[in-house]
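> call design_seq(struct)
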């Protein structure tokens, strides 16, 4: 199976690594990748043209950076994310997926073991779950590194931030804003209005740490500015729940999500959930060693 809703990758200066697009191609998942016009030819050298969308400049010029730096430096990925939101709406979809460009694989967590998925069925599973409810605004898989094999974790967690790989309901009354932490900001605005978010632990994304990977906004955001502006912006946006703290030799933000635990899921009328496991046809296969050197 493949996802019902369109899949978009927003990318900058990563046509060589193109981790997320490689992962989706291995899984047979169709996608579009959004790039800035001046990098279009570079991406065409590694990705089929029919998969590439050019980000219209108006989305960059009109983007609310929530920062003076955004007027002279990179806006971050939010402008491209707003474009794919509108693109999916214009094509008649009720939801869309938007992914960062540094996700190297997707996984299923089952019985405390993580297995790399070679099929897009995991996205369809998440879609079918959110389609059962009236009031989910955003959903997505947790990070691979945040679910350890030694920990007991539930299949999903309600009402927290959704990062890097997001399934977004198109009719919620928001758009992306902010030069940094725009994932957290979007999640918080939805939660404050009473919506629910769903972070899946049953399905995971392998994220390469942004600051350790060239391309994207690594140079502008971290190499030149450090982590304080990034953390301070979120505190300025949401001073009631977000605070800046010094930990592990750098600035971090912390967010208190306790007040949103009261946001409960509302099941759609007529939806009946069978009390049994549905593996959607997925099977566990042993992967033979690759003697050629790669995966």
């Amino acid at each position: 199976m493949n996802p019902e809703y369109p899949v978009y990758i927003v990318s900058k200066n990563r046509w060589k690594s193109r981790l997320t697009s490689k992962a989706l191609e291995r899984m047979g998942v169709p996608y579009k990748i959004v790039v800035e016009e001046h990098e279009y030819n570079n991406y065409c050298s590694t990705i089929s043209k029919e998969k590439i969308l050019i980000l219209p400049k108006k989305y960059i010029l009109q983007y609310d950076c929530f920062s003076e730096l955004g007027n002279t430096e990179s806006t971050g990925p939010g402008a491209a994310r707003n474009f794919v939101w509108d693109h999916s709406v214009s094509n008649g979809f009720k939801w869309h997926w938007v992914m960062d460009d540094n996700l190297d694989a997707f996984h299923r967590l089952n019985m405390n073991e993580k297995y790399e998925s070679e099929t897009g069925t995991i996205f369809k599973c998440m879609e079918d779950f959110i389609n059962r409810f009236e009031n989910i605004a955003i959903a997505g898989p947790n990070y691979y590194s945040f679910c350890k094999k030694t920990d007991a974790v539930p299949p999903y967690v309600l009402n927290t931030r959704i990062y890097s790989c997001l399934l977004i309901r198109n009719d919620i009354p928001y758009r992306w804003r902010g030069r940094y932490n725009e994932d957290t900001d979007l999640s918080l605005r939805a939660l404050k209005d009473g919506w629910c978010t769903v972070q899946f632990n049953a399905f995971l994304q392998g994220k390469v740490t942004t600051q350790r990977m060239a391309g994207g906004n690594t140079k502008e955001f971290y190499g030149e500015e450090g982590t304080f502006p990034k953390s301070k912006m979120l505190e300025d946006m949401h001073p009631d729940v977000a605070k800046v703290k010094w930990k592990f030799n750098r600035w971090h933000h912390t967010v208190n999500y306790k007040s949103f635990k009261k946001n409960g899921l509302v099941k759609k009328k007529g939806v009946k959930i069978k009390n049994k496991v549905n593996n959607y046809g997925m099977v566990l296969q042993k992967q033979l060693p690759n003697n050629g050197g790669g995966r």
